[in-house]
Design a protein that fits this description.
Blueprint: H1 2-9, E1 23-25, E2 59-60, E3 66-67, E4 76-83, E5 86-93, E6 104-110, H2 117-124, E7 132-136, H3 155-168, E8 173-183, H4 185-196, E9 203-207, E10 225-231, E11 242-244, E12 247-249, H5 252-262, E13 269-273, E14 278-283, E15 290-295, H6 317-326
Parallel strand pairs: 6-7, 6-8, 8-9, 9-10, 10-15
Antiparallel strand pairs: 1-2, 1-4, 2-3, 4-5, 5-7, 11-12, 13-14, 14-15
Pfam family, one: Esterase
GO cellular component, one term: extracellular region
Transmembrane segments: 12-31
Length: 334
Amino acid sequence: MAGEKKRLSRVVALLGGIVIGLAVVMIALYYDTGNHSEQSGSGDLHATAPATRTATTSIVSPEGTPAFKSPGAGESATIQLASAGRTRQFILSVPRNFYPGRRIPVIFAFHGYGENAALMETYTHLDDAQALIVYPDGIRQSWEGAPYSVTNKGKDRQFVHDILAALKTVYPVDTERVFAAGFSNGGGFAAMIGCQMPDLFAGVALVSAAYYPAVHENCSGEPVALLDIHGTEDPVVKYDGGTRHGTRYDSVPAVLEKASRRNHCVGGSQFYRINRSAVRQDWYGCELPLSHIRVGEGVHAWPGAPNDKREHVPKNMATDEILRFFGIAKVPAR
């Protein structure tokens, strides 16, 4: 499991002295299907409403001392946070079996271009995990690293840093089990986080990710557990690379080759069929895990989500594989 292997390979060095700005918890029924510009060819999305939300307005002090009633077990809240000079927001989902006396992992889930946090929450079903799930909203529905991103360099990463720092003031975060997952542009941003923030993140999972050049700039060189999931017939972010928004992006094989070198994999790789549509490739002799799931005839979608209409893809396939890779169980059914 990625989290356990990360403990053996590194000592987490948390950066102190973070000043957390004014944060307001605004809980609402926040649902917006958004603009699916990066999901062309993936079908219509039919998603259910997100988890139960409470109705509390609260504040985090500039010193980071909690001064609010945080979302409790089984609740989901929309939270506003001052970061890098502007007010931003994210959805926080707390599992229904959360116990304050036990350390809990965190998964950041980044939406695709033209989407939003609420949509990401509805189609991924990551709320089923025994973890705090953070769904941040990108500025103008995009993330750093893409040619169309509108945030200044480093501002989205600072936002992630500030969210994690704020969570630690309220919840018993397991700092060695913090992960990132993302779809499309969000997948590229999760890859960037894995490159540049491996001291804070134990692993990343990338679905239909767009690997523009900026994603892999200035990588730290430290290994990070990585799972890539991509469809062979993705018409938006092609498996074999291409050009989009006037900018070249890397092929999946090229990205995996870089990852194998970074994770110091020396034992080659093997392939395993996991269902009628997908084959998993696992690398061996790596300092940290590296895996790829190749979805045959897969399109630009989160495999197994409601907008993935292919009959041979198991329901919630991508989410189940991501949680398995992260070593995080689902909340037991009632």
